[in-house]
Design brief:
By secondary structure, the protein is an alpha/beta fold. Helix content is 29%, strand content 23%. It has an eight-stranded mixed β-sheet with strand order 6-7-8-3-9-10-12-11, sandwiched between helices. α3 packs across α4, α4 packs across α5 and α5 packs parallel to α6.
């Protein structure tokens, strides 16, 4: 058990998007993108949120930062309720909480030089202006592996990897303590991905950062994470220490995900767990365990009773009737 207070504490977080139909746009249902997610992230830690596309990972990151409002639940940053904060207080919190978006091509304003884009947020938050803002913008670009003269260039003059460095520099300009890295390398060439991962790790050490790292690539997560949370259909199904998770995943969905990681040594024989069927619609999730329609170990209780995310004797958390049989 970590005795340190968490940087981020998420409790029963939900985001349900209304489905509107008909001439009068009546609400006829909801898409349960995030449905009761709870976890904590501790200082200096990288907590990875993983799962298939559409499971609610990115939405979770956005509602944590209040880029979208949650339907229910709470988010506490350094013991402060983010959703109880006024607009003025939220602006101050934004200095401490930043995001690196997935697509560096759409994350930057094509009409601004990258130096102007960084100076703009420094001025908006009242941290620097004029020559001081320019100096700080150039310094943070250099810390992210670029050159001073790059501040006068426009986004279209950069490669994808360079643009992502600019996006990371912009997030660092406010000297945050916590960063949501939302699929930060998925839009980049494989040859560039390792450079960006190494940069994020170096910056974490230099600036004492805490990361929520959102990814579908478990081979990357194995390299960067301290703890891993697995999402399926808007819910967390497993949370645990990275080493224990990769050695022995407990949830059947986690086991399937890990079995799909390619092995570099052809002499190693690895059993691939192929899931049947498709992911159910979050607008009409199945009763009971959300994974029971695809689970190779499904039991009758799985079809009717929703498993809770409970701690095991070793301190890991799993939402599965196989691990925690109902009384």
């Amino acid at each position: 058990m970590n005795a340190t207070l968490p940087v981020l504490s998420v409790r029963n977080l939900k985001k349900h998007f209304p489905i509107r139909t008909g001439v009068f746009s009546r609400v006829t249902g909801h898409v349960k993108a995030v449905d009761g997610v709870s976890f904590e992230i501790f200082p200096g830690e990288t907590f990875a949120l993983v799962g298939e596309s559409g499971c609610g990972k990115s939405t979770t990151g956005r509602i944590i930062l209040r880029l979208q409002n949650a339907t229910d639940g709470s988010v506490h940053f350094n013991q402060e309720d983010v959703y109880a904060a006024s607009f003025q207080r939220l602006r101050l919190l934004r200095k401490e909480m930043q995001i690196v978006f997935q697509d560096p091509y759409s994350a930057l304003n094509p009409r601004l030089t990258v130096g102007s884009a960084i100076r703009e947020i420094l001025q908006v938050h009242g941290l620097a202006s004029g020559a001081e803002a320019r100096e700080r913008a150039e310094d943070v670009l250099i810390r992210c592996g670029l050159e001073r003269y790059h501040a006068d260039r426009y986004p279209h003059e950069f490669s994808g990897g360079q643009r992502q460095r600019v996006v990371i520099a912009r997030a660092l300009a406010l000297d945050p303590r916590f960063i949501v890295a939302d699929e930060p390398i998925s839009a980049l060439d494989v040859s560039i991905q390792s450079q960006i991962i190494n940069l994020l790790e170096d910056l974490q050490d230099s600036f004492d950062l805490t990361y929520l790292f959102i990814s579908h690539d478990l081979s990357v997560v194995r390299h960067v994470a301290d703890r891993v949370g697995v999402m399926y259909l808007g819910k967390l199904v497993e949370v645990g220490d990275k080493a224990e998770f990769y050695r022995e995943p407990l949830h059947p969905y986690s086991q399937s995900l890990l079995s799909a990681i390619p092995v570099s040594d052809p002499a190693i024989k690895k059993k691939r767990i192929i899931l049947k069927g498709d992911v159910p619609s979050p607008a009409n999730p199945p009763a009971g365990c959300p994974f029971h329609t695809r689970c190779p170990h499904v039991m009758e209780v799985c079809r009717t009773v929703v498993p809770e995310l409970k701690a095991t004797a070793e301190g890991r958390h799993v939402a599965c009737h196989l691990v925690h049989p109902p009384a």
